[in-house]
Design goal:
Length: 425
Amino acid sequence: MILYQGEIFTDELQMKLIDQLKIDCYQTINHSEELNTMEVINACDILARKVKAGEYNDIILPLLTEFDIPYDYFIESIPMFEKDSLIKKCEIELGNNFEHLPDLDKDNRRKICPLGILFHIAAGNVDVLPAYSVIEGLLAGNINILKLPSGDRGMSVKLLSELINIEPKLKNYIYVFDVPSTETETLKIFADIADAIIVWGGDVAVKAARSMASVNTKIIEWGHKLSFAYATLDASEKDLKRLAGHIAMTNQVLCSSCQGIFVDSKNMDQVKSFAKKFFDILVEESKKHKLVSLGMRGKNTIEIYNAKLEQHETHQVIYDEKGMSVIVSDDHELELSMLFRNVWVKSLPREIIIEKIKPHKNHLQTASLLCNKEDVSELSDKLAKAGIIRVTKAGDMSRIIVGESHDGKYALREYSRIVELAKTT
């Protein structure tokens, strides 16, 4: 399915439309009025209200079910599209006077301009909706070419076509193509047209984007990230329950989801005791949430069984029940878990946090702290120095706050440029 200048086309016309794409994009830059940010914001606000009213649930609900994304989490993300939130976002990222920058000096004025044309390579999960990536591009005044993820199922085309229906001026600023990642030559055409490639995904996706970009095309990465919890031995039961609830709610599929817990102790007996306590809490908290799918439980049951067979070599301690597990390992490495309520627990004394976490660099996102108030400042500082982007409370790892950054950067700044213009005499 293709969305091109406000019309939906079948894939049979893909190459014909792609042959025309550069001409049409340049025509828009040359002859169209610059996008008015408030017109974009008002259109998004109307769309958000329609989504909240359930007008698109026929598309949205099956997709959320497929990716095991909680409906409540999705609903919490809708305010990101609303008027007040988008105005706040623009003011935080571009400044309170983003539409009229003060002059540089008496002879030179300044303005914020779009990069021009953005090529969005969307991720294959629903952590960040592809439509939202395009909306960020629109807020900065850019033309947007979106490559759909394989699991989109028509939701992005539906939402973006509705946005164009609300504000027809957007039709020349939104192009959506359902091109497989294997069609590299087609993707290179998009990359050559674009001023910047916006890539959402892991290392493979980022590497592929870099390979198709010319030297004068900007690459803006929003890669897959790893998140974890850091706990002291005196972590409260309340915090442990909140963390377990977060793990059960998100099933660990979001970049901000907890993959495992580092414990501030060198004593492995203490770490094992902590892990057993957390496992018991995870089992109880999971009962308050939707069951993991039978297929995923079966897959994880097999992986846990294999891990048990290898215990004589790995020396892991495994607590498990019905496809859920807490696995204690004697290394200090940050890694992806088995997902779907399977958590690793490892020792990581605070004095080696930076040494062990810092090497993961660009893969770091959220860390939740489970500790007493006296330790918060020291541990937060160490985690920040190690490269963590945000430090949260136990159950807030996937919280959404208007105005927060993407992985430590502001998208609208990345999608814009400051132009300085000499005043006429």
